[in-house]
Amino acid sequence: MSKSRDLFIALGICVFGVLLIASNFADRFVTQLPEGADVVAAEFDFDFKMIAAASASAVGPRDGKFGLGRGATQNEVAAWNGDISPDGTGLPVGSGDAIDGEEIFSEHCAICHGDFAEGVDNWPELAGGLDTLADEDPVKTVGSYWPYLSTAWDYVKRSMPFGYAQSLSDDDVYAIVAYILYSNDIIDEEFVLSNETFLDVKMPNVNGFIIDDRLTSESHFWNKKVCMSDCKSDVEITMRAAVLDVTPEDDANEEAAVSSATETMSNQSEVQAESVIEVAALNPQLVKSGEKAFKKCKSCHQIGDGAKNKTGPHLNAIFGRKIGGLEGFKYSKIFKSMRDDGRVWDEESMAAFLAAPKQYAKGTKMSFSGFKKEEDIVSTIEYLKSFESFN
Amino acid sequence: MTDNFSDKKPSRRQFLAGAAALGAGSSAAGSLSASGDDPLITEVQEWAQITGDGVDATPYGLPIEFEKDVVRRNVGWLTADTISSINFSPIHALDGTITPQGCAFERHHSGAIELRKEDYRLMINGLVDKELVFTYEDLERFPREQHVYFCECAANTGMEWAGAQLNGVQFTHGMIHNMEYTGVSLRTLLNEAGLNAAGDLKEKWIFVEGADASSNGRSIPMEKALDDVLVAFKANGEALRKEHGYPVRLVVPGWEGNMWVKWLRRVEVLDRPVESREETSKYTDTLADGISRKWTWAMDAKSVVTSPSPQSPILHGKGPLVISGLAWSGRGVVTRVDVTIDGGKNWHEARLAQPGTKMALTRFYLDMEWDGEEMFLQSRAHDETGYVQPTKEELREVRGLNSIYHNNCIQTWWIKSNGEAENVEIS
């Protein structure tokens, strides 16, 4: 091994012209070469000869192909090539209507977009707004604004639901899109949306777009003769940002903020230290893998310091909490009835819920379909337990 | 990484906090001994006696703690959730033109994912001679290019359409960063797949798509794709950050940031645009009559004074003052920047720190003697195409009040006699 190591270094010096100082460093800090390094060195020698022989043609810019990459298989292209064009190119065979769509929408979409596609909080509204585009605050929805139906199908299929994208079947997507159209009074409830009827749907704002015309409509911004002195006589303030006062700002006294943060942190670690004594010690390895598994949850659920209810309720101190028991969160009906039955989250109920949410809580709006691996359930529960002391 | 701020604190407080900090500083410089000596000089200081950190104390260095306020910030009320949101580069506190990756604004549609190089694949499909799949390693074997480009979100300054709203250049203009990219020309990759199958390239498009859950996709005309679009894997010399698309993102020089698809996984050659959600329902510009412009890709010439500004007030009183700012154009090189201190009565040509480069930020300075009187600061960029940055009024005349994107209007800062600054509109 040591012989081939010397050879390797020697080659390095002659091929790359490594400076003397570098070889000094190499001598002093050379590490154990990986297995098979002698083979690499031998190949290197071979390549070296080849390069020497062909150096005139192999070096420098080249046109044409590099022979890199490999052919994509049909299945690979089919798996990723999902975009749908306005003429319907790319649509898979399938169908759905607004009646089916309403149920699927309420299960997967309503938590953000509202039962009637009207939008919750800052989440987009999908229905209404017809004839408002010229108003002061236009309401831009699939019905009032989107020029092509293909865009809705494409987006729902590839990017929705938020937090669990690419989980809907083609028929479900047809049904959801049909429901959105129905909510916008574009189709009636008898209409079955399918790859065959797709182009029958007329989008209200299909003619509402023009291609970027800045070069003509704003041509006066070019080659404008600018005034440099005595350009105007009076300057008056017409509007002030401070009047509106919507700028987010640092806490007034940063030092105070920092020290209070430190306090909170040390308080927390005290609390945590206490709770570690109270609660059976957590398995840190398991908590760590649980944190990874929890990525599937965190687009909707917050946990930890300052966690708030978002799309889903916050999960601090979840064990021992009444199911559906957080005030101010809009639970699905099933959770309200579980709460009324006095049920409580414990490890057992959580494991059953995480394995098959829709079976455990029929009608839950949570879009997640459950962990397939037992170890993800176990580690997620361990991770959740590590937030017992947070409020 | 990102500071989250509680909303609606009176802006004056921040200024006063800054002034208090100055007070502390000036009292140190001011508390000279009877002999007029500065104890920072005449007394041996702790740092001059005891030793500091050894090498490797921080294997990957971060800014010193005294700079901890130079961070990205978001505006809580803008979006429903930080996972689908944007924050802002602290341009009020930066100088030069390169934006450090750690404080360069982030925009995610479904959060910043963690994608290992080993798991990375790039597919070229559609109207090509051979549909190909590249690994990350494959990309590193193509000839590389290096360019500095700005990336500006089309919505930068979007909150200011209807009136002066946010009090800080970070919030009004911080959806921008400027980095030196290393990568492979998209042209090289398209040629590797072969474009004979596409026939006449004139009416052809590419559709680019990301690997994250939003699978953000945009259509780009072939002419641009073969011109200067870059498939980048390094920024400012190091790997892209997770939040900017590690390991590979698209760089579309001069065009709106939404097209710079992060975690780029697929490039499809097509004979039509896809008309995806991000190029129809979003990133289109509704005019006063309700008709909307689409395919408004280029970012027009724009500039802003970054200091003094509301987050960077004048704390030193009257005398020599450096006015500093940024200018850029998505249509080419910034050739000139004019600055006014009296709200546009008189303009002065600013000094460009370096000659402008195509589709990259240019730093400008105006060195002046401040008399301590109030000022109305504005800057006005000119680019090599002859475009002159318009006023907000001029923009509104053409586009109305309902636009969100592409607001490149002249910005006004009202500098008060105490050095405090505020975002205002003037006659």
Distance between the first and last residues' Cα of chain B: 39 Å
Gross morphology of chain B is globular
Alpha-beta content class of chain A: mainly alpha
Find the CATH topology of the largest domain in chain A.
Answer: Cytochrome Bc1 Complex, Chain D, domain 2
Tally of alpha and pi helices of chain B: 7
Radius of gyration of chain B: 24 Å
CATH superfamily of the largest domain in chain A: Cytochrome c-like domain
Uncertain residue segments of chain A:
1-56, 252-279
Oligomer: heterodimer
General description of the model:
The complex is a heterodimer of chains A (391) and B (427). Chain A is mainly alpha-helical and 391 residues long. Chain A has three domains: 2-54, no CATH class; 82-200, Cytochrome c-like domain (Cytochrome Bc1 Complex, Chain D, domain 2), CATH 1.10.760; 274-385, Cytochrome Bc1 Complex, Chain D, domain 2 (Orthogonal Bundle). Chain A contains 16 helices and five strands. A two-stranded antiparallel ribbon of chain A has the order 2-3. In chain A, helix 12 crosses helix 16 and helix 14 (347-355) packs across helix 16. Chain A is globular. Chain B has a single domain (17-24, 70-427), classed as Oxidoreductase, molybdopterin-binding domain (Sulfite Oxidase, Chain A, domain 2, Alpha-Beta Complex). Chain B contains seven helices and 25 strands. Chain B is globular and about 85 Å long. Chain B starts with a strand and ends with a strand. Classes of the chains: A mainly alpha (391), B alpha+beta (427). At the A-B interface, strand 1, helix 4, helix 7, strand 4 and strand 5 of A face helix 1, strand 5, strand 6, helix 5 and strand 14 of B. Strand 4 (209-211) of chain A pairs parallel with strand 16 of chain B, so a sheet runs across the interface.
